[in-house]
């Protein structure tokens, strides 16, 4: 049996209807959605299953994405589909921590709800921005950004795809400079804030007070930290890393490479979209990447004899 990593997408993958088929077919998923809705005082079923404007607002997106990924994962685990390690892109790291046994599912959904509110409030509208940089390596991107104020790499997604974040004026100035340096394209992102930049450091500090209210359990498997790009095995490190994660770069490529060094050969993306599976094909074509975002995806895997 191949060593397996469960990986969880972050904000931006959300879409109306996500998880609805799991809710309709799985008692486990139904219990998670219902319990999380009660915990938050928020109808997560309506938020996730029906077209609405709130789903794309950070303060709602994060809880919606997290409850969906966790509901899917718990049904998978009940069917005997297990992981040897876990990781998540930004927000997805909370689902990975539930998978790894360090966080209670309802605590995770509650924490990301507070995280989303803090991030939404961190920077006044219009002051921050993000952009995707295609076709330029990280080292050259870092060199260009070094000459600008309050802008940094937010995501090391995969070879040839980087995201920058920070002060709006600096992100806009960076575009032409990055193209001159060899970037194929620089695409502004439709986001509500400069996520994973130093401008959100205060939000991270406030998140610390939220996380102090949560008890973390012993890790049952390692997970890869966005902040370090390395595997974490000590529960005592988790809270501090989650605080730093809000304003630190997401080292997703490094996370994937760390899991491959640990022996992962099969990566299973759990949640809406196929973004992370696409990244894996660019990071290392020798490993297998599959995605489970619908009930039909799960049926095909379980009826086909499982993941192997």
Could you provide a short overview of the structure?
This protein has 308 residues and is an alpha/beta fold.
State the helix count. Answer: 13
Identify low-pLDDT runs. Answer: none
Number of strands: 10
CATH topology of the largest domain: Malonyl-Coenzyme A Acyl Carrier Protein, domain 2
* Alpha carbon gap, first and last residue: 6 Å
Lateral strand order in the biggest sheet? 8-7-2-1-9-10
Overall form? globular
- What is the multimeric organization of the chains shown? single chain
Please tell me the CATH architecture of the largest domain by its name. 3-Layer(aba) Sandwich
Mean pLDDT across the residues is 95
Secondary-structure-based class equals alpha/beta
Helix content: 40-55%
Q: In the CATH hierarchy, what is the class of the largest domain?
A: Alpha Beta
Question: C-alpha Rg, in Å?
Answer: 18 Å
In this structure, how is the largest beta sheet organized?
6 strands, mixed
Topology pattern, helix = H, strand = E: EHHHHEHHEHEEHEHEEHHEHEH
């Amino acid at each position: 049996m191949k060593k397996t990593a469960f990986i969880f997408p972050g904000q931006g993958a959300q879409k109306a209807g996500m998880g609805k088929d799991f809710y309709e077919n799985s008692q486990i998923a139904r219990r998670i959605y219902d319990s999380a809705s009660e915990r938050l005082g928020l109808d997560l079923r309506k938020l996730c299953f029906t077209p609405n404007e709130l789903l794309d607002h950070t303060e709602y997106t994060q809880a919606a994405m997290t409850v969906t990924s966790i509901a899917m994962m718990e049904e998978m685990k009940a069917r005997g589909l297990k992981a040897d390690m876990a990781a998540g892109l930004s927000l997805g790291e909370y689902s990975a921590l539930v998978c790894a046994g360090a966080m209670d599912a309802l605590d995770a959904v509650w924490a990301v709800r507070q995280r989303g509110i803090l991030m939404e409030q961190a920077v006044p509208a219009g002051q921050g921005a993000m952009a995707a940089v295609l076709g330029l390596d990280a080292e050259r991107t870092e060199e260009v950004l070094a000459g600008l104020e309050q802008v940094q790499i937010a995501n090391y997604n995969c070879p040839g795809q980087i995201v920058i974040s920070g002060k709006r004026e600096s992100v806009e100035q960076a575009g032409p400079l990055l193209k001159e340096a060899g970037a194929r394209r620089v695409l502004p992102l439709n986001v509500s804030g400069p996520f994973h930049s130093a401008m959100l450091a205060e939000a991270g500090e406030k998140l610390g007070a939220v996380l102090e209210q949560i008890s973390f359990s012993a890790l049952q498997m390692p997970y890869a930290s966005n902040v370090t790009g390395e595997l974490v095995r000590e529960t005592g490190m988790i809270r501090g890393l989650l605080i730093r994660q809000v304003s630190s770069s997401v080292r997703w490529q490094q996370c994937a490479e760390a899991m491959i060094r640990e022996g992962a050969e099969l990566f299973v993306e759990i949640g809406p979209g196929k973004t992370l599976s696409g990244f894996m094909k660019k990071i290392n074509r020798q490993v297998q990447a599959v995605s489970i975002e619908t009930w039909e995806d799960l049926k095909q895997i379980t009826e086909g004899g499982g993941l192997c």
